[in-house]
Amino acid sequence: MGRNLAIVRQQGEIGMTKTAVNHSAAELRMRRAAARLIALCTLAGAAAVGSCTDINVAAGRVASLSFDSLPSPAVVAGDTLRDSLGRAAPLRAVAFNGSGDIIAQPDIQYISLDTGVTIGPGNFLVSQRRLGTVRLVANTATVQSAVRPLLVARQPDSVVVTGKLRDTLNYLLPDNATSNMTAALSVRVLTRDTTGGITATQGWIVSYQAFHAGKAVAAGDTSSVFLVGNGTQRTWIDTTGTDGTAARNVRVRPIGITTVPDSVVVIATVRFRGVAVRGSPVRFVILVRPKPASATR
Questions:
Q1: Beta carbons of 64 and 142 less than 8 angstroms apart
Q2: pLDDT tens for each residue of 114-154
Q3: Could you give all domains of the chain from N- to C-terminal order, each with its CATH number?
Q4: Bridge partner residues of 66 (DSSP)
Q5: Strand (E) or helix (H) holding 212
Q6: What does the pLDDT read at residue 19?
Q7: CA neighbor of 237 nearest in space, from 202, 207, 203
Q8: What DSSP designation does 1 have?
Q9: Residue 27 CA to chain centroid, in angstroms?
Q10: Closest Cα to residue 255, out of 214, 224, 297?
């Protein structure tokens, strides 16, 4: 694969990593509102017994915790939790005070409710567990987060294609959201750890990047072609299921197609510790053209 494609894929995955540890502006606004509500409720309760002046509403006091994402949905048995670029990544939560403001450098502890993992200095998680799911929480002196599950997975070794590497989409005019979509561009992530007869890796990230008219399609660009997951959800990332399979579809909007016939290239990438596994990346090519008039009658 050429250097330009590698750069584009890396940039896309860096964006995904940032998304895993950061929170959208809308989410932060919701968290702030919730924290304010907690503070108001606390003050109201205190006022009922005449002790408002005793309530600690200092800016550094944690009113709520947001522990809504992990660097990855899975950690390989015997390895450190890593981000999509293969770098060891710490657990991170966001703490809010009673005014809904983010608290800088809060004192947060991360706890596993299950055995088999260790959370050490810097909040880096190491798994000694064989396989399964562990439950994690973020905790302060006054607040505990919701439970965040983490899958302990088998090491990914290779990827094979389960869909068509080359396909044709005959799109309809006017646009039809159901018909103007490709079949699943599916791959399967395999493992050498076949204990118990299991041959696939569950919970592993597969990243997809679409290319059209010689350029990488930006994540928010829906003008002509874009990647979708279940239904119409726009996403370029999938996580393997219990059978190790991941898939995305290409949605085509004819209004943005200026060349007939046209084509779309999709690259699917699977990495472990930042290195592409055997068989990765996978290159799908879709020929795009209008449906013949005789076939639409």
A1: no
A2: 999 999 999 999 999 889 999 999 999 989 999 999 999 99
A3: 3-153 (2.60.40.2120), 156-291 (2.60.40.10)
A4: 94
A5: strand 205-212
A6: 38
A7: 207
A8: -
A9: 16
A10: 224
